[in-house]
Amino acid sequence: MSEPRVPPETVRTARLDLLPLRVEHAEEMAVVLSDPALHTYIGGAPLSPADLRARYERLISGSPDPAVSWCNWVLRLRARSCLVGTVQATVTEGRPRDGRGAEIAWVIGSRWQGRGFASEAARGLVDWLGRRSVRTVVAHIHPAHAASAAVAAAAGLAPTDEEQDGETRWRLTPPPQPADPPALP
Fold first, then answer.
1. Predicted TM-score (pTM) above 0.85
2. What is the pLDDT of residues 50-63, one digit of tens each?
3. Longest distance between any two alpha carbons in the chain, whole Å
4. Would the pLDDT of 173 be above 80?
5. With contact defined as beta carbons under 8 Å apart, do 30 and 47 qualify?
6. With b meaning 16 or more CB within 10 Å and e meaning fewer, what string describes 121-147?
7. Which residues does 24 contact at the CB level (< 8 Å), separation at least 6?
């Protein structure tokens, strides 16, 4: 696999460090993500440390498509020096006129929910993507998942009429750039 066009970098928010994913995070993250309730809306089941390690190895190796960058982070709460969740962005190179796009997602361990960490991390991620010329950001959220909808709204995304696999597509599109002034005759 080739080096991603948009490699993940450490992102700092008020309380969190978004650290680029490493295989070594698997053991601690297996505990953070061990609650089966986390999978209510996203499907699947908690992974063992070994299975999570294998998944992280695949994610870190990158997308086989050179026009797609897999950017994955763990969220470290600086005050406690512990991991509390993850955020991810799949960044796709678009046509020159459309620019880059990204699909984002987040998961916060059950123990750490309700403290604003997901919203803080999602805002930090969206800001980071904007500095990398990502023009459109989308997230897919189950219509019954009010907490995730609140995170998307806090990051500046708005629901659309589009659906994919029973989930609502939320989108953040930057305002249109002003047109060049007409040329003088």
1. yes
2. 999 999 999 999 99
3. 69
4. no
5. yes
6. bbbbbbebbeebebbbbbbbbbeebee
7. none
Q: How far apart, in whole angstroms, are the C-alpha atoms of residue 168 and residue 161? A: 7
Q: Could you tell me if residue 32 is left (phi over 0), alpha (psi between -120 and 50 degrees) or otherwise beta?
A: alpha
Cβ-Cβ contacts under 8 Å for 37 (sequence gap 6 or more): 110
DSSP assignment letter at 15: S
- Do residues 37 and 44 touch, judged by C-beta distance below 8 A? no
Of the listed ranges 8-12, 129-133, 143-147, 175-179, the least confidently predicted one is 175-179
- Can you read off the two tokens belonging to residue 82? 């512990």
Is residue 167 scored above 80 in pLDDT? yes
What is the Cα–Cα distance from 160 to 157, expressed in whole angstroms? 9
Beta bridge partners of 18: 11, 75
Average of per-residue pLDDT across 30-41: 94
What domains are defined for the chain? 11-172 (3.40.630.30)
Cβ pair 74, 21 in contact under 8 A: yes
Look at the alpha carbons of 24, 38, 41, 141 in this order and tell me if their dihedral is positive or negative: negative
Cβ-Cβ contacts under 8 Å for 34 (sequence gap 6 or more): 46
